[in-house]
Amino acid sequence: MTDRNRSIGWRAILRGVAIVYGTTFLSGLAFAFAGITPQTDQVAYSLLALLTGAVGVALALRVADTTRLSYLVAIGVGVWLLSATSVLLGAQSLTGWVNSSAFIATTVILGRLLTGISVETVPTPAMLYSLLPHKNHSALQKRRARPSRF
């Protein structure tokens, strides 16, 4: 089944959101144990969070075996909605949560770029090789046809 013909179901989207959110959550714990916090290292923490989120998106794309735009948007929206729990818990303001949508969009785009051009390996058609110019090696073939002196 090709990527274009396959529809991505809710289970795949939820799995992708769980992979991205789990990756960023675990990396946040690792950052906290290492002493890297948003208060002490604002730039380093932001860059590391962006990178680990992008790695999570790349992993989710690998697991789903797709790079469809609809899947990427669904993952981004899912992660953004799931991060609303921080507003409910009082860890983030509503304005901060709304502003985080740009960060999540950047993370999704970066994760897509980490996967490369395509998730699937597409074999190169043999016809392309026939269109390449071929050198005439007839002189080489004549030289090989002569008996060796040694």
Q: How large is the radius of gyration?
A: 25 Å
User: How many angstroms separate the termini?
Assistant: 58 Å
Q: Average pLDDT, to the nearest integer?
A: 80
Task: Report the structural category.
Answer: mainly alpha
What is the ordering of alpha helices and beta strands?
HHHHHHH
Strand content range: under 5%
The total tally of domains equals 1
Report helical residue fraction: 55-70%
Number of helices, where a helix is a run of at least 4 consecutive DSSP H or I residues: 7
Care to count the β-strands? 0
What form results from the Cα inertia axes? globular
The main sheet comes to: none
* Uncertain spans: 1-5
Task: Please characterize this protein's 3D structure.
By secondary structure, the chain is mainly α. It has one domain. It has seven helices and no strands.
Tags for this model:
disordered N terminus, mainly alpha, 150 residues, 7 helices, globular, single chain
Give a quick precis of the structure.
67% of the residues lie in helices and 0% in strands. With 150 residues, the protein is an all-alpha fold.
Question: How would the blueprint of this fold be written?
Answer:
Layout: H1 10-34, H2 42-64, H3 69-82, H4 85-88, H5 94-114, H6 126-131, H7 138-145
Helix pairs in contact: 1-2, 1-3, 2-5, 3-5
